[in-house]
Specification:
The complex is a heterotrimer. Chain A is mostly helical. Chain A contains eight helices and no strands. Chain A is globular and about 60 Å long. Chain B has one domain (about 10-50). By secondary structure, chain B is an all-alpha fold. The chains are: A mainly alpha, B mainly alpha, C mainly alpha.
Chain lengths: ~250, ~55, ~230
């Protein structure tokens, strides 16, 4: 049993295994996204209140959900790396951050574009989710900035892990604060995605996209983890043997 | 077809999907190029060390 | 227990030292304070002196100014110790590092946060805020500036000794400080409008307690990491 975990933490093992999973995750993800997108754009019925604009949900919700999943992965693996001193965990955290930042940006951009026809404005401070998503983008940027400011990778790993954990505690607090604050705001009615009850014809493509983007994220994460591992282990014997064995 | 017009919201819907598509492509390309670049850098250094021996 | 300074003595010693250092460099205390005052005057100059507008933005301005001036003073929290070598001594002390970090944070608050709280009524009056609001402002600012010192000590510990650590420090601390800012400023606004302030005050107190219980440990861990 321990050998399983021991192997799991071994960099050359991860490097090889991850490579095998990437095409499957990517393929499955893209297939699900293709179905979800096409069904969502062309076959789901238009929403009663929002007409066709609601279709943005099919990219906005996956992006927002992934932005939070990525942060959780980042914080949890940073914690594992810090507590159990697993270098691989730190590599996962480092790999997750840029992806999370991209999806956060996407959630904000699609949310803003969606807001324009719905609220009449590109930005709505009164929407708690947009505002707390923006703050989360700053947390991601801070994490990546701290990483790049520290030269020694071991120090960078540990320092950014502390930051990720402190940020993780704050994320629910930030969300709660912004919600409370915006509930005081006499603004336009908040748009609830999809309307009061979501039909299956609208729901299935959404679920497909959420799942599909998650698989795609998984593939991207594995790709980046491999690169992190390769970079960190560049002076090791297994890397040397692996690369020199390849024909030039 | 009404697909392009999207009931008048065409610009918003298509720009959202377009942006998502672009970001996904960028992520994929970025991951691949970083991997390739890292591999190349290490390979160059290792082969240089090999031939220097 | 071995002979040597007790926990209380170590804690008090750290506070006393930092207060003494600040006393010798009054600029460290007064510069952020003047910054606070100046920033508060920028807004009426930029936006215009209409009273309703001032009352509307007053609480927010005071809070943002307090936040920014806290950031200004945070950078020096460990920098002086790093420069003269005492940071290593502090880390190597027999007393638990979180306790010593807490001591430094307390000293930092006395020197930077407390003056802000004391000066804030003047700013509040200049923004035409009703007198009843001032007590709420001081109460919320007290909890808020303590939380800021605590959060800031984590950021300062993470960035001590880095090039351009100053900007990075702000980038790290500001997102974390946003709940404090939101509740602090909005509670004072509510007070000005005779709304219910209890919820906001409780939140700020709770957040302050939370920060008090984990920030010293996070900052101590960060110090050890940065200083390896």
């Amino acid at each position: 049993m321990w050998t399983f975990f021991h192997k799991l933490a071994s960099p050359p093992h991860i490097y090889r295994i991850a490579a095998k999973f990437v095409p499957w995750f990517a393929g499955l993800g893209l297939a699900l996204i293709a179905y979800g997108t096409i069904a969502g754009l062309f076959f789901a019925p238009a929403d009663y209140q929002q007409k066709d604009a609601f279709r943005i949900i099919y990219v906005h919700v996956p992006a927002a959900y992934l932005s939070m999943l990525a942060y959780s992965i980042m914080a949890i693996s940073a914690g594992i790396g810090l507590i159990w001193r697993m270098k691989l965990a730190h590599a996962v955290a480092a790999a997750a951050a840029p992806l999370g930042a991209w999806f956060t940006f996407l959630a904000l951009a699609t949310g803003s574009i969606w807001g324009r026809p719905m609220w009449g404005t590109w930005w709505e401070w009164g929407d708690p989710r947009l505002t707390s998503e923006l703050i989360m983008l700053f947390l991601y940027i801070g994490y990546m900035a701290l990483r790049s400011a520290i030269d020694d990778i071991g120090k960078a790993d540990k320092a950014s892990a502390v930051l990720a954990l402190v940020g993780a505690v704050n994320v629910p607090i930030i969300h709660f604060s912004v919600e409370w604050w915006s509930s005081l705001h006499q603004g336009p009615t908040l748009i609830r995605e999809g309307g009061p009850a979501i039909e299956t014809a609208m729901l299935y493509p959404l679920l497909a996209n959420i799942l599909g983007f998650t698989f795609l994220f998984g593939a991207l994460l594995l790709m980046r983890v491999r690169t992190e591992v390769l970079q960190r282990e560049r002076r090791s014997r297994w890397v040397r043997n692996m690369i020199l064995e390849e024909p030039a | 077809m009404s697909a392009l017009a999207m009931g008048g919201y065409g610009a918003y819907v298509w720009s959202s999907f377009g942006l998502t598509f672009v970001v996904v492509i960028v992520c994929i390309l970025q991951a691949r190029s970083r991997q390739a670049r890292t591999y190349r850098q290490i390979e160059t250094r290792l082969r240089a060390m090999e031939s220097a021996e | 227990m071995s002979a040597g300074p007790s926990l209380k003595q170590g804690f008090a010693a750290v506070i006393r030292r930092d207060l003494l250092l600040a006393y010798k460099r009054p600029g460290d205390v007064f510069n952020p304070l003047f910054f606070f005052a100046i920033v508060s005057t920028l807004f009426p100059l930029a936006i215009g002196p209409a009273n309703e507008q001032l009352i509307a933005i007053g609480p927010g301005v005071v809070w943002v100014a307090a936040l920014l001036s806290a950031l200004l003073s945070l950078n020096g929290l460990y920098l002086g110790d790093l420069d003269d070598g005492s940071l290593d001594q502090i880390i190597l002390s027999p007393q638990p590092l979180p306790l010593l970090v807490l001591g430094k944070t307390v000293a930092h608050w006395i020197v930077s946060g407390l003056p802000l709280v004391i000066v804030s009524p003047l700013i509040a009056i200049s923004y035409q805020l009703p007198a009843a609001t001032i007590s709420i402002m001081m109460l919320t600012l007290t909890f808020g500036t303590i939380s800021l010192s605590l959060l800031g000590s984590i950021g300062a510990a993470l960035t001590v000794g880095l090039n351009r650590g100053n900007a990075l420090l702000s980038l790290l601390v500001l997102p974390l400080a946003m709940p404090v800012l939101i509740f602090g400023a909005r509670t004072v606004s509510l007070a000005a409008a005779d709304g219910a302030v209890a919820a906001g005050v409780y939140f700020l107190a709770a957040y302050c307690m939370l920060a008090l219980s984990f920030a010293p440990f996070a900052a101590a861990a960060a110090l050890r990491i940065s200083n390896d």
